[in-house]
What we know:
Layout: H1 2-27, E1 33-37, E2 40-47, H2 60-82, H3 87-110, E3 113-121, E4 124-125, H4 131-149
Antiparallel strand pairs: 1-2, 2-3, 3-4
Amino acid sequence: MLRRTWPIFCGVLAADAASKWLAVLWLSEPPGSYAVLPIFSLTLVFNPGISFGLLGANTTGQSWGLSGLGLAIIAFLVWLASRCPDRWEQTGYAVIIAGAVGNVADRMHDGLVTDFLDFHLAGWRFPTFNLADTAITLGAATIFLRAALVRPPPAPA
């Protein structure tokens, strides 16, 4: 599995790291936000919690605990991917794992995850996220769609 999807994994991880670096570089100066479209802005946010800002207390113990949990989940996903014969599912796992590694690396380095993609409309705001979160979502969608659309071969009689 890893040899086939290694380039995808590396590409997603590199894109995530580069995008976070550029977000910090370009958005650190006030106002910290740049309107791209009426419904989309680049807005620098440092998330101490998990997805959508849950568990956002920002303590060192919490940061390391979330990093440890992330590493355990990554190890489990690598195990699942290694047992998966389907190329599409392997690709989905590689993309999820790359996103998870990107966020765990961010948390282990800074104690926070860098988010910057901000969708909003008429006072409603989706939680700010990053490319790693996008990769995790797209990888999961790939695995679920593959499972829903491909029927397993019939069992031998």
